[in-house]
Amino acid sequence: xxxxxxxxxxxxxxxxxxxxxxxxxxxxDSDSETLPKAEDLLDDAVDNLESASSFQxxxxxxxxxxxxxxxxxxxxxxxxxxxxxxSGVFAAPDSLQASVEFSVGDLMAxxxxxxxxxxxxxxxxxxxxxxxxxxxxxxxxxxSSLLSTETGIPYTLRNVSGLEMAGKRDLDGLAVYLLTxxxxxxxxxxxxxxxxxxxxxxxxxxxYVLTEExxxxxxxxxxxxxxxxxxxxxxPTTWTINxxxxxxxxxxxxxxxxxx
Amino acid sequence: xxxxxxxxxxxxxxxxxLTIVSxxxxxxxxxxxxxxxxxxxxxxxxxxxVKEYLDQASWAVTGYLLAYAISMTFxxxxxxxxxxxxxxxxxLIVFMFGSYMVTAYDSSLINGWIARFYNQxxxxxxxxxxxxxxxxxITGRIVQxxxxxxxxxxxIALAGDLFPPNRRAQPIGFVGAIDTLGWVLGHLYGGVMVRxxxxxxxxxxxxxxxxxxxxxxxxxETLFILNIPITLLxxxxxxxxxxxxxxxxxxxxxxxxxxxxFSAALIALNLGIGTTSPEAATSANSFEDLQSSSAGASTLxxxxxxxxxxGFLVVETRSKFPLIPLKLFRSRNFSAASAANxxxxxxxxxxxxxxxxxxxxxxxxxxxxxxxxxxxxxxxLLSGLTIPIALAAVPGGWFSDRYGYRRPTAVGLxxxxxxxxLTGLVWDTDTPYWLMGSQMAIIGVGLGLTISPIGTAVLxxxxxxxxxxxxxxxxxxxxxxMTLAISSMTIYALDRxxxxxxxxxxxxxxxxxxxxxxxxxxxxxxxxxKELQFIGAAISAVGVGIALLLxxxxxxxxxxxxxGARASQELTGAVPDD
Lengths: 260, 578
Fold this sequence. Notes:
The complex is a heterodimer. Chain A has a single domain, classed as outer membrane lipoprotein receptor (LolB), chain A (Clam), CATH 2.50.20.20. Chain A is built from 5 helices and 11 strands, in the order H-H-E-E-E-E-E-E-H-H-E-E-H-E-E-E. By secondary structure, chain B is an all-alpha fold. Chain B has 2 domains: 244 residues, MFS general substrate transporter like domains (Growth Hormone, Chain: A, Up-down Bundle), CATH 1.20.1250.20; 251 residues, MFS general substrate transporter like domains (Growth Hormone, Chain: A), CATH 1.20.1250.20. Helix content of chain B is 76%, strand content 0%. The radius of gyration of chain B is 24 Å and the shape is globular.
């Protein structure tokens, strides 16, 4: 019995120590090491992004809703489709497979999208059942536009104004540099798939770059609250874009549709 | 036994103590099914799409069931070693902490830890925040279940400590009834409360606002928040009433390898047969639903389950202080009661799944209103089975006291066999629900009658030191029986349905109308469900045969000298029944 008690005591203490260890791993890692120049670091990170053969991208939205125009999909205009989250894999030069989640009123729904070049394939329970349709979900979209030097993510990042190095940070256990600045709302189409509410003016942008690999890990965009929402107790829209799993082997192929 | 010194009579009343400690058992059992009715609501509130996450979210139900069963395996033994009071109080704290965890899913601190753990320890990116929320709800549920499940065998063992052998049947029946009542009502309670919060919740917000307290509108989370003060009260109550309980004088070590191997076998078995929880099964709309709500059989997991179980047997044979002393199975009463309980679980699952399937197959147009209405009818119809189970558990104890273990168990299973046979003969595509409900009540009464004599037979057949272990085994075997029934009967039903649907579909008719398809489907489904009833009848009949092996259990006044000696012999089965 004494052994049993001692064993339980030991187990409890071990659990406490592990918890303390995990808790202790966090915190601000600001130290005295020399920080790289913001422009050089961003150039480096954008070069890495442009030359990537593949990456995963996750886009989440919080705050004031981002409404999706649903005209082409046969849904009623009053359906109130709001974008919530997307998670996808991009494979250079021109393929993307993504799962897009949106809210319809109080309900959440999801659609699967595969885009190869100009061809888009859509599968969405409430519209297509389990079938894939060769249907354009995002008008004129081609995956290659994500890395376009004229409209893509590299273009957005190279056009950040007032770029500043905010220092070294701990992003959920990852060592990153934080860069801050402003970006034109018209320059963030690729990052937000053209869904951004703000059509003009500047947005605050935060860019988190991994300290070792100089890869863009996370981009945070903050939109101002639209005029019509000022009276509502709403938080401004915040876009959080995570780019991860660079250069991993990915194969994206067109799904079987009814036509083929 | 309770120490009598200086305590008032009511305070030492075993029934008073048992009532106090049974309340958390009820709450724990209630939570077994509380979330199944509101699972889509939970997923939606976490801003996740229901269809894509229902599979993962169903672990909030299945995980609870598994953890509930696993904690039963070791809590009884632990209470034999450390004392009922200490283990019972620990169970309550674990349950309370789990309830808190369910509601603290959006804690930025905990979510930060998880993200950090993924990034630093696992070397991979963490799941998105909403997924982490869901996983935390599931984790909280599992922690809750570890406490809730553990309370049941400890409470049954307490009944063994509180009552002399010749008076144990009724209290054990009482605990069985409380446990059954909890999981029977959980589904209904969860659904009704969440609906009530949705419609009337704003009144609470306004009322609290008037006294200067800002609260969020009550929702499904409130159900778990309510657990905290209730458990706290129960904790104080248990602390107080269990003060006089003697510690069992068991020595030895806790069989950690036995526990790990048995848990692994149980988890792998569940994953292997790909079963769903009984609650999820009762809401299936079709045999395909029943199949899709389970993960599908996996040979690998079944092999792991078999290996783990063999490992468990080896460990138990060699261990000086085994988790489940295998020598107990040498006793005829212990083995017979255990086997009968496994079959009771099997029959219970058939009863639980059949009625909702009939109701749902009758839905011609699957609109939202029709489905909601069918769910309501299925719920009411199910109560025709489950409420009699809970109600009959208490007279089952009374009969056990007077006629021994054998008669109420055999009569109960014979009643269940008759009920199943009746449903198999009578149910048709247009049988009125009241008739179905009344026939299910026969099955319910039959199964309910067996709870107490089976539990008492097991408990009275083991030494005092093994009561906790024995109590756990009674319950686990019933859960395993239910699990086996759902998986095996699903496979059987799908196979038979294909045969029947071919019979009902005329091959020469090229074009079939929607009406004829619906009619053929319903007819084929009813035929399959009727076959399931006959299987239930056959299993119950086998149970009657096993029940006839039970001996003893009649209570004879212990104070009558030689009669007392005979009572003692009868309770342990040394003297055969008439």
